Amino acid sequence: MRKIGMVIALCLWMFQVQAELRLPRVFADHMVLQRGQEIPVWGSADSRERVTVSFQGKEYRVRADREGNWELKMDALSKGGPYTLTVTTRDESVTYENVMIGDVWLLGGQSNMEWALKNTNNGEDSIKTAKHPDIRLFEVGRNLSLEPIDDVPEAKWSVCSPETVENFSAIGYYFARRIQTDLDVPIGLLDINWGGTLSEAWTSPEALMSHEDFRERVVTNQTEGPKDFSDPEVRKPNLWPTSLYYGMLEPVIPFAIKGALWYQGESNAGRAYQYREIFPLLITDWRDKWGQGDFPFLWVQLANFRQPKDEPADSDWAELREAQSMTLSLPNTGQAVIIDKGEADDIHPRDKWTVGERLAKAAKKIAYGMDVVYSGPTFKSMEIQGDQIRISFDHIGSGLMVKDKYGYVKGFAVAGADKKFHWVKGFQDGNQIVLETGDIDDPVAVRYAWADNPDDVNLYNKEGLPANPFRTDEWQGITYGKK
């Protein structure tokens, strides 16, 4: 009889666990829900249980499936708050307080995106004045998985204040502060990143299986990869493509978002040609998984880094920047160029304020449709005229500007058919740049800011946005064919 009693007690306990009403951690007090579009809400309950979501005077009902999973969509709403959201079943109820309706931005990438506000230039002053209750941060703890999981094991929403903001993503904070101030809308930030990680760790297996360089590895991971990542020798996301997609990103999908901010590429620089394919693959993958169409996707181009070189040279970082710029061919994308804000001896530039400001300009144009200059000059065309080359640009704003007291533009190199590049002098002529090719025989190609660290570049538009690095040749780079 004692054994029978234990079995009955165990069954009752299992029933109670199964019947527990649960929502992912992304639903919590202080959260921000996306305005202007339907809002997905999902979770688990008892099999076939009826679930009611109450928000803003309206009730939404759904029945859980056989496994206890349920999902519904609430109506689109305008900005506002604070509100209360309640989820109920026959026997349980969960209530979330201080809920705002605004814009939600995903922060993804590696260490420069997760870099804490307290470790930046003027970080202490920014923390002291960070009284912005309409800015909220959802921070996901580091986690790996090679298979789908119901929820992230660690995450929380925080309201921006001097007491909470010091560990916020600095770029996320400065971006949110600008958008929130200028548009008067609550901002939620989904902070989902991990320093030093490769882009393929953040991409789904379905997407990576479409790329020949990763197909075999994905299959091997799924069949032979670890289930437990507690061992420090195993807990290395770059060993396991898709591990951060499953472990940190997928559990928040399809939480409605306005768009995504991305700062990553340093770890992929050695395979920059491959990045031409796998970076747009990641963007397309995320958009497909979210099911929101081509939501805005904005990224930070790699900053200048390492010691400057005396002569023009090949550069994997320049090739990675080129791959990033090429991805602008996707719709609703934008890029913040920070070729003037890096530090030779530090891969983590401390000026995150400028990065956030430039991302905000791109967001105003691409996500909000505002009439703003959001990009620095980009290469348009070149014309060889004897011993001079005339360069024209798009995105000149109200005009080109050379930051040099003598008016000389720097950072340009020219090569002849021998493919050997030489620094050249240049000057501004209206909204064009004229390069003097001197003794270079039959010049055929121009490169600008083509280096790990082109530390003296000085070409901008009058709005203060730097010219995008470029090259006119298509000669094979040093990362071509690397996998």
**Overall number of domains:** 2
CATH-defined architecture of the largest domain: 3-Layer(aba) Sandwich
The computed structural class is alpha+beta
Distance between the termini: 64 Å
Instruction: Please report the total strand number as a whole number.
Output: 24
- How helical, in percent, are the residues? 10-25%
Question: What is the makeup of the main sheet?
Answer: 11 strands, mixed
CATH class of the largest domain: Alpha Beta
Rg estimate, integer Å: 25 Å
Q: What's the rounded overall pLDDT mean?
A: 95
Number of helical segments?
Answer: 10
Outline type = globular
Organism: Cyclobacterium plantarum
Domain Sialate O-acetylesterase: 103-363
Signal peptide: 1-19
Protein name: Sialate O-acetylesterase
Describe this entry's structure for a reader.
- This protein is an alpha+beta fold and 483 residues long.
- It folds into 2 domains: 255 residues, Rossmann fold, CATH 3.40.50; 94 residues.
- The chain is built from 10 helices and 24 strands.
- The strands form 5 sheets. Strands 1, 3, 4, 6, 7, 8, 9, 10, 11, 12 and 13 form an 11-stranded mixed β-sheet that branches. Strands 14-15-21-20-17 form a 5-stranded antiparallel β-sheet, with no helix packed on it. Strands 19-18-22-24 form a 4-stranded antiparallel β-sheet, with no helix packed on it.
- Helix 8 runs parallel beside helix 9.
- The N and C termini lie far apart (64 Å).
- About 2% of the residues have low confidence.
